[in-house]
Specification:
The protein is of the alpha/beta class and 111 residues long. It has one domain (21-107): Flavocytochrome B2, Chain A, domain 1 (Roll). It has helices at 2-16, 36-40, 70-74, 82-89, 93-100, and strands at residues 33-34, 43-44, 47-52, 55-58, 79-80, 103-107. Strands 1, 2, 3, 4, 5 and 6 form a 6-stranded mixed β-sheet that branches. The termini are far apart.
Length: 111
C-alpha cells in the first residue's frame, strides 16, 4: 500500500517540479545496518554503493549526474569513500545535501 502511495505522489509531483528525482533513490529506512562486506558487493557503475562517514549510499543513480564527472563516483563503488569525499567536499553544503538523497543505511557496527 505504501509503495503505491509513494509511486502516485512521485508521478504527480515530479512533473510539477516539486520533488527532485534523486530523492526517489533514498530508502525510507536510512538507519538500516549494512555491513562493509555487503557494500563491497555493489562495486560497479550499474550497482554502486559507497560508504561516506559511516553512512551507506546507493550512488547508482547519481553517477551520470555528478558535476565532476562519472569517473569520480565510479571510483567510489563498493568502497569506503569517506576520505575522498571529505577531501573534495569538506564544509560544502550542496554535496552533502545531494548525497543525503541516496542514503540507504548505516555501517553495521562490529560486535
Amino acid at each position: 500500500m505504501t509503495s503505491k502511495i509513494i509511486a502516485t505522489c512521485v508521478a504527480v509531483l515530479i512533473p510539477m517540479g516539486l520533488v527532485m528525482p534523486t530523492a526517489i533513490h533514498a530508502a525510507p529506512n536510512t538507519t538500516k545496518p549494512i555491513t562493509l562486506k555487503a557494500v563491497k558487493k555493489h562495486n560497479s557503475p550499474n550497482d554502486c554503493w559507497a560508504v561516506v562517514n559511516r553512512k551507506v549510499y546507493n550512488l547508482t543513480g547519481w553517477i551520470s549526474q555528478h558535476p565532476g564527472g562519472s569517473s569520480r563516483i565510479i571510483a567510489m563503488c563498493g568502497k569506503n569513500a569517506s576520505k575522498a569525499f571529505n577531501a573534495q567536499h569538506a564544509g560544502q553544503g550542496s554535496p552533502n545535501s545531494n548525497l543525503a538523497n541516496y542514503q540507504i543505511g548505516v555501517v553495521k557496527k562490529k560486535r
